[in-house]
Fold:
Amino acid sequence: MSNTTSPIRVVVWGENRHEQEQPEIAEIYPDGMHNTIREGIEENLGSAASVTTVTLDDPEHGLTDEVLRNTDVLVWWGHAAHGEVSDEVVDRVHRHVLAGMGLLVLHSGHWSKIFGKLMGTSCTLRWRSEQDRELVWTVDPTHPITQGVPHPFIIPQQEMYGEFFDVPAPDELIFLSTFSGGEVFRSGMTYKRGFGKIFFFSPGDQDYPVYHQKEVRRVIANGVEWAVTVRPERTDPELLRYETEDFYNGHGYQGAMAN
Structure:
């Protein structure tokens, strides 16, 4: 069970392929996007979070059962190698989310196997890959994820994501983005699956220095804090036959009427 008085145990999962294969991206993220994301969380949460990183090419993608049992929030960034993620690992992450592990899905993670499994839809969207300008508008200023975030804030270099975005209606719509072509996109949304809380946040294309931007780093850190939940001791449903007499006899309805 998580101890909310201890530092939030965060694992940032990164595909880490673009940085290895494309020099122009390595120049933007010399230590990898996963480490830049980690630095942003540490910058905002300080000692309140203990952040580690794992990557696609680690054994079991770095997501062993032991690692996931000791993770309060998993942050996921992937883009070009979704198909290389093991179905066994996806099933493992899925079980842990249902059991109460928080999950932040960033940018192209909308097409990750784990997000698709949790959403149950195609998770497709419209995009335009040339450089654009994104305005991120706060839809719910009372939400914890929006605290300390300007309204709106500007991302000067970004890929366009636009509607229609084929995901279920979110539990909460937090941010809405607009682009220079007039497109709109639901760029920050929350879901709950089982005991786990999920935050999808779209800004963060690999071709641009988005994860160096202070506003984006603040949103991700806020999302990490929001996604923490205390995992229950038992999360699998106990399916037992329940007789009417179990309620009426003893401390149930008749007992209440007698008093």
